[in-house]
Amino acid sequence: MEIKDNTFARQFEIVVDGKLISVEYSFQEKKIFLTRINTFDGFNDEELINEFLKNIMEIAYERKLKVVPILPKIALFFRKNSTYKDLLPPGIKI
């Protein structure tokens, strides 16, 4: 999966079937806040979104960032993938 970090638009991007899927973010100190997932009409491949989020978690590890899941769907990702819970900042329990 090839992920583009579009820093101008503040989002991670992938292209699926020629259409853009993105995860919007914002930064504060050493934390990245994942705020929104944008898909195109008719898209419902949750496994692809799961893989996209796993790749974003790897980027967070590389950049030594803590991840704050603002979106309930991303909080659910952390509940289902406990291996990434160490990316959560202190005090955030999911």
Overview of the structural elements:
This protein is α+β, with helices and mostly antiparallel strands and 94 residues long. The chain is 28% helix and 33% strand. It contains 2 helices and 5 strands. Strands 1-2-3-4-5 form a 5-stranded mixed β-sheet. A hairpin with a 2-residue loop joins β2 and β3.
**Number of distinct helices:** 2
**Going across the major beta sheet, what is the strand order?**
1-2-3-4-5
Principal-axes geometry comes out as globular
Q: Which regions contain 5 or more consecutive residues with pLDDT less than 50?
A: none
Most strands sheet: 5 strands, mixed
Q: From N to C, what is the helix and strand string?
A: EEEEHEH
Helix content: 25-40%
For the residues shown, what is the average pLDDT?
Answer: 94
Note the beta-strand portion: 25-35%
Q: Give the termini distance in whole angstroms.
A: 27 Å
Radius of gyration: 13 Å
The assigned structural class equals alpha+beta
Number of strands: 5
Short description:
With 94 residues, this protein is of the alpha+beta class. The protein is built from two helices and five strands. It starts with a strand and ends in a 14-residue tail after the last helix.
